[in-house]
Automatic annotation (TrEMBL):
SUPFAM superfamilies cross-referenced by the UniProt entry: FMN-binding split barrel, lambda repressor-like DNA-binding domains
Annotated organism of origin: Streptomyces spongiicola
Segments forming domain HTH cro/C1-type: 93-147
Composition bias type Gly residues, residue spans: 44-55
Name of the molecule in the record: DUF1918 domain-containing protein
PROSITE patterns for the chain: HTH_CROC1
GO molecular function: DNA binding
Amino acid sequence: MRWSDTDEVTLVFPGADARLRHLEHPQHPEHQPGAAPRPSGPGAAPGGRSSGGSARGTAAGARAPGTVAGAATGGPGPDEPAGPGTSGIGARLAAERERQGLTRVTVAGRAAMAPEYLAYLEEGPADPGLAALARLAAALGTSVEALRGGGTDLPPGQGRALLRPRLRELGTDECRARLSTHGVGRVAVTTPDGPAVVPVNYEVIDDRIAFRSAPGSVPAAAAGSEVAFEVDHLDETASRGWSVLVVGPARHVTEPGAVRRLTEAAHTRPWAGGEREMWVSIQPRRITGRRIDPPGE
């Protein structure tokens, strides 16, 4: 590739999903009618490219000065429209990788790409091509559609069931491991209008399930009663998943020291936003779980 501003030559090594777009540029002065031809000789390469010129190697997907968006990054070509939510692909990649506890080196190795390229995809406004997305989806055990943000307005579990699924019970230790340190779960409460199940951002601190809410809200009704709390995850691509159910008494945490400790240990603010400073803690009395696996696992 020859840069029009410096006339330097760059060797580009594009990834398997890269696409090149040819742009029309004004002719170089030396190519104008009547211009003197470029000298040729032992020190010149064919086509006038000097063998001693600078050759700047660029990694696959890295954008060098003068490259076109989508050319070296593997963005959609003229005949391939971008999928839904492409601007958030990097965030979804990073979130799924971190959820599974995988490093960039591990995922990049599975997807046959450089860790630096994966870092570029996760941190920049990149739109990788279908080939790279397919490899990343396979490496993470998800789908291209999920990485592109498709189906976000549909309930999970619309795929086909496994041919011979295997349902097995989870032990207490495995249930606690799947609860992890924090996440989004559902709390079942009884309200004056009847039973209700609502999602909450939760934390696991000292073996207790804790979440923040606002006084008078539906989740706040959990305080002072026996409640059920559920967490699950579905793998849409493999038609498998798991669920964990926690049952126990819930109470409103009011001690200043305990409230401060919960607030400082929290991994995130409630996604719903607003003033939600009422902490509710659930003491597990029973923890059960189930998992759907393919036959033979």
